[in-house]
Design brief:
single chain; globular; mainly alpha; 16 helices; about 375 residues; Na+/H+ antiporter like fold; about 75% helix
């Protein structure tokens, strides 16, 4: 008789709890289901971690557990003593960007020389598609101006490290993915404020120079420090290479939890519609990014890369920008919702493409 392992037990327990949650909802007792919902997501994540096919969803399930905690018990994630936890957002983003810098080198930018067309197409698609789609969705949303501006903000942000992971899993062009992410991120201090002024100016007041300096502090300085650190101590800090991805994931999780707690009331009021619009934004990014790349003659592998780079945005950076504007509880909501959804859809897309070898090229790996 085959022995049932602990991961299977965790999944079975999550199924039992799911039916318990369903029963409480049917009885109109959702307000008391918080502990069960948290337990469901935690056990689901533990169970997923034991199976290769669904291991990529562990982070998203744990994020949902954290979001549930902050929705049911926001008082623990808003303030500790006299310290407001939103004050952690900028330092956490700087840590994430420093980690990105330590994993980069000047050689990463050689991709611009090796594949100029791919980089140009990828960056231009990212800077055109997502901001315009975000503006269109914000305009028809009917949301209060600051919340609508958050949808535009996520569209005007560059892609993040998560896109590189998904590109690798999708058998896309990882080198191109890293180069596009790097270039788009370094352009963000200059491009994002201008796009926000043009597209979100009707929703909120945007000071371009102030936003430029804020993004520079969040991106350029920590990435520069990370690049310098990597150059001076290359190969001597392998523990840091292993630790930074985990630290980054924990930082992103904490940022989402704090934003959710800060904007809990608004999120409960418009959460379902916001989730739908953010999901549409994300899916349009994949779809339009892919077909834009194909239209201009990119091969299947590069088209997958650009699809993922366009569809997956840096929600952490968008949250940091909202925080610097003092609008974390409103403008920060769309980025907080986008992050977990993006990881789920990105994992599904990457898993689908992983099983399908690109048709128009030979992959030796």
């Amino acid at each position: 008789m085959k022995r049932i392992n602990s991961y299977t037990i965790a999944l079975m327990a999550s199924v039992v709890i799911f039916f318990g949650i369903f029963l409480m909802i049917a009885l109109g007792n959702l307000k008391d289901a918080g502990l069960l919902i948290v337990s469901f997501f935690v056990l689901l994540g533990v169970g997923f971690s034991g199976f290769k096919a669904v291991k990529g969803y562990v982070f998203a399930t744990l994020i949902f557990a954290g979001v549930t905690l902050s929705l049911y018990w926001p008082q623990y994630f808003v303030q500790i003593g006299n310290f407001k936890l939103t004050g952690l957002i900028i330092p956490l983003i700087q840590i994430i960007m420093f980690g990105m810098g330590t994993s980069m080198s000047i050689k990463d930018f050689a991709g611009v020389i090796k594949s100029p067309k791919g980089v140009l197409v990828g960056v231009s698609a990212q800077l055109a598609i997502m901001p315009i789609v975000g503006y269109a969705l914000a305009s028809v949303s009917g949301f209060p101006p600051e919340i609508a501006a958050g949808i535009v903000l996520i569209g005007c942000s560059p892609s993040g490290v998560a896109s590189n992971v998904m590109a690798y899993l999708a058998k896309a062009n990882l080198a191109l993915s890293i180069t596009i992410t790097s270039i788009a991120t370094l352009l963000a201090p200059f491009v994002t404020p201008v796009l926000m002024k043009l597209l979100a100016g009707q929703f909120v007041e945007i000071n371009v120079l102030t936003m430029m300096w804020s993004i520079t502090k969040m991106i350029i300085l920590p990435i520069g420090a990370g690049l310098l650190f990597n150059h001076l101590l290359h190969g001597r800090t392998k523990w840091l290479d292993k630790a930074m991805p985990l630290v980054s994931m924990l930082a992103i999780g904490l940022i989402i939890i704090v934003i959710t707690a800060a904007g809990r009331d608004s999120l409960l009021e418009i959460g379902a519609l916001l989730m739908l619009l953010v999901l549409v934004h994300n899916l349009f990014g994949y779809f339009l990014g892919y077909w834009f790349a194909r239209l201009v003659g990119m091969d299947e592998r590069d088209a997958r890369t650009i699809s993922i780079e366009v569809g997956m945005q840096n929600g952490g950076l968008a949250s940091g920008i909202a925080n610097t504007l003092g609008k974390i509880a409103t403008m920060g909501l769309a980025p907080a919702v986008f992050g977990p959804l993006m990881n789920i859809t990105g994992s599904i897309l990457a898993s689908y493409w992983h099983k399908k070898v690109p048709t128009d090229i030979e992959l030796s790996d």
